[in-house]
C-alpha cells in the first residue's frame, strides 16, 4: 500500500496516525516524512523505518514512491504548500497513492483546512474512494456526538463535499494522552499495549523495599499500559474500517444522526 497523510493544517495528527495507526499495524511499511530535516517525531520511534526528505526534493520523493510498495508519506505542515505545488507539476504522482488519509480535529480552522484539502485533492483528479477522512482528537468525555463535533466537515460531506471523499463517521480516534507518553517512551502504542510487565508485582516489591521512585514508575507504568490498551483497541477498529473490504466500498457520506461506534 502507498498511503499519503495530508492536511493543509498542522497539528491534526498526521505524524501520529502515520506512526501509530498506519506503520505500526502494517508490517514492512516505512514512513517517508516530508519535513525539514530532523523535524519528525517519527524518527525516534523504536522499530520504525523512517526517512526524511523535504518537499524541495520532490523528484526524490516521487522516485521513492514509484519504487516502493509499502510506504506512508507523512507531509508536515511546514512542507505542505511546496508539496502541493509539486504534485500539480508532476501530474501522475497523485495516481501512485492507494489511499490519502486526511485527519481532522474539532477546531474550526482545522476543519476548514480539511475541507480545502479535500477540494484540492478532488481538483487534482484523485478518485474519491481513495480519499479518507479520519476524525481525530475526539474528546471521549464530551456529550456531543461526532456529527456535532465535526459538523463543518460532515456538513460539507452532505453538500459540496459529496462524492469527493469517504467520510466514515465511525473512523474516530479518541483524544488520548498516551500518544504523548508514547513519544516520550519512543515506542508505538501497539508496543506499549503489548507490554506484559507485572506492574502489581513491581509495586509490591517497591513498597517492600521502600523505594518510592520504583513505586512511582510502577504506578505510571500501569496507567500508561491501560491507556495504551484503550488506544490500541481504538486504532485497530479504525484500521479495520479503513482497510476492511466493507469500508473500501462505502463511499456514502455520513447519514445524519449516526452515533459513533
Ligand atoms: N488522538 C490524539 N490524542 C491526543 N493527542 C494527540 C492525538 N493525535 C495527535 N495528538 C497530539 O497532537 C500533537 C500534534 O500531532 P502531530 O504531530 O501528529 O500533528 P501533525 O499533523 O503531524 O502536525 P505537523 O503538520 O506540524 O507535522 C502532538 O503532540 C500529538 O501527540
Ligand atoms: Mg507531523
Q: Please tell me the CATH architecture by its name.
A: 3-Layer(aba) Sandwich
**Largest sheet strand order:** 3-2-4-1-5-6-7
Mean of the pLDDT scores? 91
Q: What percent of the residues sit in helical stretches (DSSP H or I)? A: 40-55%
Beta-strand proportion: 15-25%
Named CATH topology: Rossmann fold
CATH superfamily: P-loop containing nucleotide triphosphate hydrolases
Structural class: alpha/beta
Terminal-residue CA separation: 26 Å
**Number of distinct beta strands:** 7
User: What is the count of structural domains?
Assistant: 1
Q: Main beta sheet: strand number and arrangement?
A: 7 strands, parallel
Distinct small molecules: adenosine-5'-triphosphate, magnesium ion
Query: Globular, elongated, flat, extended or rod-shaped: what is the shape?
Result: globular
Concise overview:
With 261 residues, this protein is an alpha/beta fold. The chain is 45% helix and 15% strand. The protein has a 7-stranded parallel β-sheet with strand order 3-2-4-1-5-6-7, with helices on both faces.
Report what the structure shows:
- The chain is of the alpha/beta class and 261 residues long.
- The chain has a single domain (2-176, 239-249), classed as Rossmann fold.
- It is built from 11 helices and 7 strands.
- The protein has helices at residues 14-22, 58-67, 80-89, 108-123, 146-149, 151-157, 178-185, 189-194, 199-209, 212-243, 245-249; strands at 2-5, 30-34, 50-52, 71-75, 99-104, 131-138, 166-174.
- The protein has a 7-stranded parallel sheet, with helices on both faces.
- Residues 14-15, 74, 76 line the site of magnesium ion (MG).
- Adenosine-5'-triphosphate is lined by residues 10-16, 41, 76-77, 136-137, 173, 175-176, 179-180, 183.
